[in-house]
Amino acid sequence: MEIYSSLDQITINEDTVVTIGNFDGVHLGHQSLIKKAVDVQEKRGLKSLLLTFENHPSDFLKGKHVRLLTVKAEKLRLIEDMGIKIFVSLPFDEKISGLEPEKFVNNILVEKLRAKAVVVGYDFRFGKNRAGDIHKLERLSKDYGYSIDVIEPILRNGQKISSSLIRRMLSEGNVREAGIMLGREYDVSGTIIHGRKFGRQIGFPTINIQADESALIPKTGVYYTKVLLDGREYCGATNVGYNPTIDGSRLSVETHIIGFCGDVYGRTARIIFLDRLRNEIKFNSIEELKVQLQNDVQNIKKLFTCKFQYGTIQSGN
């Protein structure tokens, strides 16, 4: 997949089918746009191109920092796997947001991206003050020589699947519903870092990951998880929270990998959230905490087939 991050870099020598959007999460709604673009690519011999933005538009327009469902590397992987050939991610800034709708079509879609077909969602808006919509895009297509496909929303329980709805589900701890709308389980990846090693002292060693600072972390609580590490899959109990029984000072994502052994500091782990087990609790004693952790592990063992490697873990808490 060709990757471009500025208009000046772009050199495209073939006519394209362009799909446009933020694509945060690459959820089922986004996937319907991508599938249509790839379908047009195959039927008309055009090269598929996905146009997105380096920063979330709300960051620029509203001064509001939006936590991401997919960091850039993961977004690239998902989009490439679906068959897109060209990935263009532009900074959403004054230059882009200030373009009049027809200028956006002429300067970017037609001249830079060589669009002969455009695939967008039914609520697509573009241009200065979001003045352009699908009707404007369709009218301009007659002058600029591209076809347009408008994709209807994908619904879940009567609601349109959207990145904002999935963020809300995650903020409520509903990782199962978020996963259904994403078309895959929600996950957070990061480098394994040193913790306080408290978990090891009480018989429940954990790995702590340092996630990308832009990534959205689900609501605090204890989750059933799968852990991908060094190409293998394990069963885990993940605590997202502040460890109130110990000190309650900072948010962490720490996972007890059932039956795991190994020194894994500095490696990358992927934590896949399957379901939420319970709220984070402040216990009156360490013994109460240990009993609850034992119950958590037993509950997870009943629900999932875990891959065990017996021994003592040597990293994390």
Structure in words:
It is elongated, with a radius of gyration of 23 Å. With 317 residues, the chain is α/β, with parallel strands linked by helices. The strands form three sheets. Strands 1-4-3-2-5-6 form a six-stranded parallel β-sheet, sandwiched between helices. Strands 9-10-13-12-11-14 form a six-stranded antiparallel barrel. A two-stranded antiparallel ribbon has the order 7-8. 31% of the residues lie in helices and 27% in strands. The chain has two domains: 2-156, 3-Layer(aba) Sandwich (Rossmann fold), CATH 3.40.50.620; 185-303, Riboflavin kinase-like (Elongation Factor Tu (Ef-tu), domain 3), CATH 2.40.30. Helix 5 packs across helix 6 and helix 7 (163-171) packs antiparallel against helix 8 (175-182). The protein has ten helices and 14 strands. Strand 7 (155-156) and strand 8 form a beta hairpin.
- pLDDT < 50 runs, ≥5 residues: 306-317
CATH superfamily of the largest domain: HUPs
Report the β-strand fraction as a percent range: 25-35%
Rounded average pLDDT: 88
CATH architecture of the largest domain: 3-Layer(aba) Sandwich
The first-level CATH class of the largest domain is given as Alpha Beta
Radius of gyration: 23 Å
Gross morphology: elongated
Strand order of the largest sheet: 1-4-3-2-5-6
